[in-house]
Amino acid sequence: MKWIAGLALSGLFLTGALSYAQAPVVKLSEVPVATQAPVPATLPVPVPMPMVTPVPVPTVAPEAPAEEPAPPEDKFLLQKLLESSRAGQTLAGNGWKVYGWTQGSYTTGSVNRSTLPVPFIDRAEQFSLNQNWLHVEKTIDTEKKEFQIGGAADLLIWGTDYRFTPSRGLLTDRQTRGETYGFDLFQGYVDMFLPNLGGQGSTVRVGKFATPIGYEVVQGISNPFVSRSYLFQYNPFTHTGVTVSTPLGDNWSMLNGIVLGNDNFFSSVARTTYLGQLKWAPKDGNTSVSFTTSITDPTFDAGKNFSYYNAYNLLLSHKVTDKLTYVADATYSHIDSAPDIGFAEWYGVANYLLYDATDKIQTKLRVELFNDEQGFRTGTSGLYTAVTAGITYKPTPWLYIMPEVRYDRNENGRPFEGNNNMFTATIGAIVRW
Question: How many alpha carbons fall within 13 Å on the CB side of residue 188?
Fold first, then answer.
C-alpha cells in the first residue's frame, strides 16, 4: 500500500503539471479595391491574330529561410586563459575543452552531526567544500562518418564528495583512513568512433567511466540537487573496462560492455561483469526510455570484503511541455551471501519534476521510495520515503545557487541519529571556472 500511495503521489504531481497554449490570432490584411476602366462608346472591331503557343515561364523556388545561428558556447575563466596561449589554442583547435568548478554547501536540520544514510550533505551544521573539479574532454561527432579519437578525464582535485565515489584499487588510502577531504580520479577514458562497425558506426570506450545506470550523477553542475537519492548512492558509480555503443536506426541504440565489476579499478577483486543498455530516444520526440543492467556472479567476497551485486535499471524521461520535464528512475539490485544476512535486495523509484520558470531559474521536486529490505546498504532495514524540493538560480552562466529542503522517513527503523524521520535544509553554490 505504501508503494501504491507513493505512485499515486507522483501521479498528482504529473496532473498538476499540465498546461495549455493559446492559439495564435491570424491578422487579416486589407485588400485594395480595384478600379474599373471606362467603357468606350464604340466598340472596336476585333482583328484576327495568329495562334501563339504560350511558352511556360520557369518558376523560381523561394529561398529557404536561413537557420538561426546557434547561441555562442559559454567559455569560463580557465578555458579563456588557455586559449590566450599558443598551447591552449592548439588544444581548442583540435576539439579539446578544459574547464572546472567549485561546489560548496551548508546543511542544517533536525540532526546535530550527520545526515547519513543520506549522502553528499552528511556533514550537518558545518560548511563542506564538496567538489573542486577539473574536466578535460574531446567529444566525438558521430554525424561525421570517419574514424575519430576522443576521450575525457575528470579529477576531483579536493573535496568531501570523494568519500562516496571510491573505486577499489585507486586512490583509496585517505578514504580508508576516514579523512574528510581527499581527491579521486573519477573518470579517465578514450573514445574511438569506428564508422564501419555497425550500420551507422559504433563508439568504443576504454578506461574508467561513470555508470550509465540511473538518472543522477556525481558531477555537481549536472545533478539537479546538492543531495542525492538513495537509488544513486547505493548503486554503482563507475566501471572500468570496455563498452561499445551502437545506434540501431534513428530511434534505438544499444550499449554492450565487459567491465571489472562495480566501483572497482584494476585490483585483486576484479570480476568479469556484463554492462548493457537498450535505449529508445526518437530524435524529434519528447520521450526517451532506457533499460540498463550490470550482471555478474553476485556473491559477496568475505575474504576481500567486497560486494558483487547485480543491478537492473529502468529510466523514463518525458518532456511534458517546453518548460516541464518528468523523469522516473527505478532500480532493483541484489547480492548473495551477504555477511550475517545471506541474500539481500534493495530497490526503489525516484520521480522528478523539473520546471524551467525562466532562463535563469529552475524549480525541482524529487519524490523517492527506497526499500532496503535487509538493511545491507544503509545499515537500517525498511522502506525509506524522501521528498526534496529545490531551486537552481543562475544569475550568470558561471554561478549556480542551489537551495533545497528535504524530508526523510524510515517506516521500520531509526537511522537518523535515533529517529525515524529527518528534516534538512541545504544551501549550495557552484562557481564555474
Answer: 9
What dihedral angle (degrees, nearest 10) is formed by the CA atoms of 23, 24, 27, 28? -50
- Count of beta carbons in the 10 Å neighbourhood of residue 235: 25
In 3-state terms, what secondary structure has residue 81?
A: helix
- What is the pTM (predicted TM-score) of this model? 0.81
* Helical residues (DSSP H) of 84-207, grouped into ranges: 86-93, 173-176
Amino acid at 102: T
Per-residue tens of pLDDT for the chain, all 433 residues: 443 344 333 443 333 433 333 333 333 233 333 333 333 333 333 334 333 334 444 444 444 444 555 566 788 888 888 888 888 888 888 899 999 999 999 999 999 999 999 999 999 999 999 999 999 999 999 889 899 999 999 999 999 999 998 899 998 888 889 999 999 999 999 999 999 998 899 999 999 999 999 999 999 999 999 999 999 999 999 999 999 999 999 999 999 999 999 999 999 999 999 999 999 999 889 999 999 999 999 999 999 999 999 999 999 999 999 999 999 999 999 999 999 999 999 999 999 999 999 999 999 999 999 999 999 999 999 999 999 999 999 999 999 999 999 999 999 999 999 999 999 999 999 999 9
Q: Which residues of 56-83 are buried (b: 16+ CB within 10 A; e: fewer)?
A: eeeeeeeeeeeeeeeeeeeebebbeebb
* Domain annotation for the chain: domains and CATH numbers: 98-432 (2.40.160.10)
Which pairs from 149-152 meet CB under 8 Å and 24+ separation? Answer: 149/190, 149/191, 149/192, 149/193, 150/95, 150/190, 150/191, 150/192, 150/193, 151/189, 151/190, 151/191, 151/207, 152/187, 152/188, 152/189, 152/191
